[in-house]
Design brief:
Layout (H helix, E strand, L loop, with lengths): L4 H4 L14 E5 L25 H14 L3 E5 L9 H10 L3 E6 L12 H7 L3 E5 L5 H8 L3 H14 L10 E5 L10 H16 L5 E4 L6 H9 L3 H10 L14 E4 L5 E2 L2 H5 L32 H4 L15
Parallel strand pairs: 1-2, 1-7, 2-3, 3-4, 4-5, 5-6
Antiparallel strand pairs: 7-8
Length: about 325
């Protein structure tokens, strides 16, 4: 796989600083039952990296120390971590709002029996990837039969109340098929809801459109196809100043499976440590709430500010 960082590190992206820290995004490991072409983590079935229970306990201490209210669990498939349920229960005991970034098909794995009911019992918000409502496009991006399995998983989630109850949030995520910006989130959400309701009687709460980041597997693919510069020009030419104040890194830190910290999940994949410190720092060693501390940036940050903006919660502004 191509190393994209040398193409990104020399950047004229604006200086930004952190606001109040409200969210911790935790990567529980890189193992996944899928290998998606757009994956910025380069996750897959052969990956072995997994967060240990001892690191989880240190993260819980950090959450207690700084009264963090939102915990965003990601991977790989975070559910494949053998201590996933332990961590969820501990977070629930702290009255945290918990998000599980789910690929949907993981729910149908034999080893995951009872997973959907467990998530319901703990009122975990599900943000599930469904990069298109057309089967051909989904299978091309995520693998053969993934669309059919995803629909089956969504039906199962609807059956137990997800997507219907306000306390059982079910949100979907759209990623472009290639080197282009996402379409209008509101319009696409209406299209998704209409199609999935009419065709499969499936309901969900929100659709989030997320820009593909030119890093890891997707970035390497762009280089192989000689489209990296073209895509970067698109991101830079679409820069929207209105998005700077809403960037997710201003209220979030990312933690890798070993417990090291970053300004966001994308920086984690580029091994760009937390900008407030000179060296990579373990979660236990953070002594302040990071307010107004410097955030480390590079050219991939233009992906979050292009057009309507992009974050793990979808677009940032309607001002294009």
């Amino acid at each position: 796989m191509h190393d994209v960082y040398p193409l990104l590190e020399h950047s004229d992206f604006p200086l930004i600083k952190r606001g109040s820290l409200t969210t911790v995004q935790v990567n529980l490991g890189y193992k996944c039952n899928q290998s998606c072409t757009h994956c910025h983590v380069n996750a897959g079935p052969k990956r072995k990296e997994e967060m240990s229970k001892s690191v989880m306990i240190d993260i819980l201490k950090f959450i207690d120390r700084f009264s963090i209210v939102n915990i965003d669990l990601t991977g790989g498939a975070p559910e494949l971590n053998k201590n996933f349920k332990f961590f969820i229960k501990e977070l629930k005991n702290r009255n945290c709002h918990i998000i599980d970034r789910c690929n949907l098909t993981i729910i149908l794995e034999k080893s995951m029996s009872g997973l959907a009911d467990f998530l319901k019992q703990n009122e975990v918000e599900i943000i599930a990837s469904l990069p298109c409502y057309i089967q051909e496009n989904v299978d091309k991006q995520r693998g053969k039969d993934v669309f059919v399995k995803s629909i089956k998983a969504l039906k199962l989630l609807n059956k137990i109340g997800y997507g219907l109850s306000p306390s059982l949030k079910l949100n979907l995520v759209y990623n472009p098929q290639g080197p282009s910006l996402p379409p209008d989130q509101l319009k696409l959400s209406r299209d998704y809801k209409e199609f999935l309701k009419d065709k499969f009687d499936i309901r969900f709460h929100n659709l989030f459109t997320i820009t593909n980041m030119p890093i890891a597997r997707f970035g390497s693919t762009l280089i192989s196809k000689n489209k990296f510069s073209e895509y970067m020009n698109l991101l830079k030419n679409s820069f929207n100043m209105n998005n700077l104040k809403e960037l997710m890194c201003k209220k979030l830190i990312s933690i890798d499976y070993q417990g090291y910290t970053y300004d966001c999940d994308f920086n984690q994949m580029l091994d760009m440590h937390l900008g407030a410190y000179k060296n990579k720092i373990y979660i236990n060693d953070i002594k302040s709430d990071l307010y107004k501390k410097h955030i480390k940036t590079a050219d991939h940050c233009f992906g979050c500010t292009a057009g309507a903006g992009s974050s793990c919660g979808g677009t940032l502004t309607n001002k294009l």
